[in-house]
Input
Amino acid sequence: MKKALLTAGALAVMAAATPASAAIYKYETNIGNGIGLTEITIDTDAQTAKFQGRNIDLLMKDSDLANWKPDLTRWGTTNWVDSLSGTFTRYGRHYTAYWSSNPKRTQFRLGDNYSFLWLYGRDRWGRTFDFDGKGTWTRYTSSTGGSSSGTQVSEPGALGLLGLALAALAFGQRGRRRRKTMRFAHT
Output
């Protein structure tokens, strides 16, 4: 009985901690300073932003991406990230990207009339390059999950009901065992 109630309680706690839905949002933008057309994929479940194009292949991670707002404002919101990996090519020179918080922090911004990407890179000789690329537009292309149609994840309420159902089953099982024991005691 205690195990079943503890299990039900643990499921209820997990239900409260589970996001209502996960989503993947896709955008296109033109990053200046030699990068060009870039596809951006924001995955709220993995908490990542992936930048891919002819001259760029980056993966950024940050827990704030779990709360990504898909509707872009005119100028966008700056998004700082906690980790970065990948490469980019600027005017024929290749760089390995690396995360930084000093003197500037790795960041990006997507807005209807603006885009911005800032990061550091190292060339093959180990020299550091301070990259900033601005663009004049970002276009939403598609999404799955979230508020749009697509793959939905279980809502916290559904998981909470599952926990209550398990608790009810455990309670009912305890009552059956007690009645069975009482029946054998009387014979």
